[in-house]
Write the structure tokens for this entry.
Amino acid sequence: MEESKLSAELNKTLIYIRNLDNCPPSYLNHPSRKEFFEIVWLKNENALHTVKGDELLKGDWIYLIPPYRVHQLNKAGKKGVLLSFKRDILDDDVKEFLLDVFKIFNIQGEFSCLQINDETAEQLGKVYQILEEEYQRENNSLVIIKALLKVFLLQLVRIKEHNFTVQDINQKRVYEFMVLLEMNYQQVRNTDFYAGKLGISSKRLNQILKEKLDKTGMQLIHDRIVLEAKRQIIHSESTIKEIAYDLGFTDRPYFSRFFKQHTGLSPEQFQNEAKAHIVTKFNTLF
């Protein structure tokens, strides 16, 4: 029963916040978890990874885990908080902010880690407390939650700038691909273009993306198109036909087949479910 309730919550929500001591065990292995950016903030705990020289193990650690990572961090029995959010919640923000978020979550491959001092922990804690309080309200506001999440992420961007570490060359290519994709996905939908911009072959690009993200370039391109289609279906007043043309589909039936292939729903079914869901729970859009 608890697992089915968790499934419904993760499938519908844009943001998921829990103390680690009451985070359902089934969350760690739930398939929907892969769609979330995860922030794991350990408080006065040992690091979950091997620290060079084994120095300063105890303290406050923030782990930034991007979507679609296979790496599992064992958080069992640890004191701290989990803040997970889907990419969709950031979609109305300016591109520069989105790219900053991509950067801090992608720097070290499977996960990125920050050790923070007491002063920084206090500053972050103030923002997190207000965010959690709004999240727990029965009639919370998605607008306020998004604004507070942005402040929290901007604080992490600032911290990360002082803790920058050398990137693995392939992880740099993943980041560069994501930046290029964000700028060009509506116009260019073949991996040859992106591989050419990175100075490597399409085959090599797909190998790197498969290794780091467990997806090919074309799958990531399709994911981004579907995400934009969902955003427009939910937030714009355009018809399905207009959205299809805006996304470069000259044939509306083909757009419907493409959308259903990737979501399991027709655009109309998704639109109806989204409308019903907005009415019942404002802060948990698809």
Notes: The longest helix spans residues 142-161.
